[in-house]
């Protein structure tokens, strides 16, 4: 378990000035890395937090004086780690089985506003299957395939509110929005199949238990809800039911 | 973090300060003909508010304020407000200034937390400005200054996206993190708990643009609704009211940011029994802070350099006490917990004519209009200036 707060560690690499910290365990085929993002850049540590194996400083070259520069949104996809940035670009890092020779291999374009969250799931083995979703401040969702190369499959437009959190499970995209709604989309088509008026304030985070298909939503209205995701046996359309 | 947060923070905290000062001045009001030389009258009150508001909305100061920049620390910001509060004939002791700043910050923290949408912090700001305009409605010049700032706010913030407002909201909340001072008025109204945390209501209207929670709709491939489920969501919400106006004039609808003080509700803060979360604050204020490195930031210097016409000759003792008696004020100063001390070192730049000229000369030697380059830290910039003295 990792808890991030401002009091934090007094190691040279983790500084109190690094506000807006996000933390994520990235589970890769041969190793687990702990990734931190902030307004300075991206830090990657060995899973016990003992050594920093990689540091990527953010390039603020294109930013205007009024734009905040930061990295936000972390996910592992195969042997890559994807991290979102303030510009909307998604950085893709190639991670070797061990050691610090991590390389920024490409930058994905698709978003024009700051990335909020990235979700991935292992490819199901078939062709053209979406295995990554990226979300941004405008509510836009981009759906990607990572093999053989990262390819943009489809986009799901926003509707005026940010999408702070997104999850991907068995071809179902779950997106939480700033207006308290949770939407479920079919990843292959981008069609909206479920709309939940879940909360009275902005959704802070979604989490998903993949073995049982349960989705958790937490919001600024102080409530936490749990939903059961499923597919209708007849139509195989996505369905959701409230559990808590 | 958002670099557009400082104007909102400054204006809203300033608004709260004016509400509190107005209330305290009215409470200590003595009718003009009956007043002794050292007692407050209605005329004095208006004059104090006029002086402070006109300093606060000074054109040059506003220009600096609105430049994109990081937020100042709590200590640095307090220095600015201390200067602001002393921009008039009024004086405040350390204990009263501490209490004033505590009340200001907790009030705005409450307002930010309870904003239904991140964008509503702008409505809170407009509420403060509307009331400020009421304080100085008899002074057209100052009114013009305030309207000018109002227009600037509309221009800069009117077009920001929901995502940008969310970042501003987060920047503000980080500024207020770990502040849990109990305010008697909030405790009485049950909007704050005994541990200093605010109560987040789970009833009332939903924000504009949000649906009432409790419904799941399911669709087919053509977008037609095929099933719906209703569920109990735990709160007690009602539909959103109409949206408040973001224009120069208009009904704001939102009550946050309006004046909640009245003459008969003296407001106390509670220092004892502070929560153990003060640990992080301890680290911030106890860190060694030599005079040379005090965050005598540009805004504070600018504030200190502004001249307010004061009557010549020895100053009458126009001291305002935020407590109910002088003894109480002394007691508060002695018993303020170490970790909550702001450790502000007072540089009496406003009262030292010679020093003021010196600072003005130094300021003249630097290109004030330029933003300091980002590679020089605030501290180094200041040290360089101090070396010139």
TrEMBL record, chain A:
Pfam families: WDR54 (PF21031). Residues 19-240 form the WD repeat-containing protein 54 beta-propeller domain. SUPFAM superfamilies: WD40 repeat-like. The keyword tRNA processing does not apply. Keywords: WD repeat. WD repeats lie at residues 196-237. This is WD repeat domain 54. The gene is WDR54.
UniProtKB/TrEMBL annotation, chain B:
The gene is OSCP1. GO terms for cellular component: basal plasma membrane; cytoplasm. It comes from Aotus nancymaae. InterPro entries: OSCP1. One of its GO terms (biological process) is xenobiotic detoxification by transmembrane export across the plasma membrane. It comes from the Eukaryota. One of its GO terms (molecular function) is transmembrane transporter activity. This is Organic solute carrier partner 1. Pfam families: Oscp1.
């Amino acid at each position: 378990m990792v808890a991030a707060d401002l009091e934090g560690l007094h190691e040279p690499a983790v500084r109190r000035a690094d506000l807006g910290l996000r933390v994520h365990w990235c589970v890769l085929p041969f190793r687990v890395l702990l990734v931190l993002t902030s307004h300075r850049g991206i830090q990657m540590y060995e899973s016990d937090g003992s050594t920093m194996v990689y540091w990527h400083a953010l390039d603020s070259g294109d930013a205007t004086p009024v734009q905040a520069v930061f990295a936000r949104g972390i996910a592992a996809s195969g042997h890559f780690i994807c991290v979102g940035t303030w510009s909307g670009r998604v950085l893709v890092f190639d991670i070797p089985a061990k050691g610090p020779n991590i390389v920024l291999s490409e930058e994905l374009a698709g978003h024009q506003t700051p990335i909020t969250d990235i979700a991935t799931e292992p490819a199901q083995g078939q062709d053209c299957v979406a295995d990554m979703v990226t979300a941004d401040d405008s509510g836009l969702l981009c759906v990607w395939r990572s093999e053989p190369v990262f390819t943009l499959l489809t986009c799901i437009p926003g509707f005026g509110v940010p999408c702070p959190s997104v999850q991907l499970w068995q071809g179902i995209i779950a997106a939480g929005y700033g207006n308290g709604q949770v939407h479920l989309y079919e990843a292959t088509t981008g069609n909206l199949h479920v709309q939940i008026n879940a909360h009275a304030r902005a959704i802070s985070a979604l989490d998903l238990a993949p073995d049982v298909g349960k989705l958790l939503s937490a919001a600024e209205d102080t409530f936490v809800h749990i939903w059961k995701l499923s597919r209708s046996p007849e139509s195989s359309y996505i369905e959701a039911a409230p559990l808590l | 973090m958002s670099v557009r947060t400082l104007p909102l923070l400054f204006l809203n905290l300033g608004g709260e300060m004016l509400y509190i000062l107005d209330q305290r001045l009215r409470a200590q009001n003595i009718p003009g003909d009956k007043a002794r030389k050292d007692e407050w009258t209605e005329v004095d009150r208006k004059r104090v508010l006029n002086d402070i508001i006109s300093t606060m909305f000074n054109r040059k100061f506003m220009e600096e304020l609105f430049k994109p920049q990081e937020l100042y620390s709590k200590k640095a910001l307090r220095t600015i407000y201390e200067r602001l509060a002393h921009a008039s004939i009024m004086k405040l002791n350390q204990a009263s200034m501490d209490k004033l700043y505590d009340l200001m910050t907790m009030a705005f923290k409450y307002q930010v937390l309870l904003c239904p949408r991140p964008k509503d912090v702008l409505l809170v700001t407009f509420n403060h400005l509307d009331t400020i305009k009421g304080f100085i409605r008899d002074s057209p010049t100052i009114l013009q200054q305030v309207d000018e700032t109002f227009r600037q706010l509309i221009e800069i913030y009117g077009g920001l996206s929901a995502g940008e407002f969310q970042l501003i909201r987060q920047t503000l909340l980080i500024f207020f993190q770990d502040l849990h001072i109990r305010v008697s008025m909030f405790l009485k109204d049950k909007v704050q708990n005994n541990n200093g945390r605010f109560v987040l209501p789970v009833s009332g209207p939903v924000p504009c643009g949000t649906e009432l929670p409790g419904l799941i709709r399911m669709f087919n491939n053509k977008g037609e609704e095929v099933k719906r489920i209703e569920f109990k969501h735990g709160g007690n919400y009602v539909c959103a009211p109409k949206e408040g106006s973001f224009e120069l004039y208009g009904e704001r609808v939102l009550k946050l940011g309006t004046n909640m003080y009245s003459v008969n509700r003296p407001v106390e803060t509670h220092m004892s029994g502070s929560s153990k979360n003060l640990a992080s604050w301890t680290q911030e204020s106890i860190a060694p802070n030599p005079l040379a490195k005090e965050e005598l930031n540009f805004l504070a210097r600018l504030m200190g350099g502004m001249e307010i016409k004061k009557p010549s000759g020895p100053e009458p003792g126009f001291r305002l006490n935020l407590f109910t008696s002088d003894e109480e004020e002394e007691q508060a100063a002695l018993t303020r917990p170490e970790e909550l001390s702001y450790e502000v070192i007072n540089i009496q730049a406003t009262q030292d004519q010679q020093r003021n000229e010196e600072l003005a000369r130094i300021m003249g030697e630097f290109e004030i209009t330029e933003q300091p380059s980002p590679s020089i830290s605030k501290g180094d910039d200041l040290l360089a200036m101090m070396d010139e003295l």
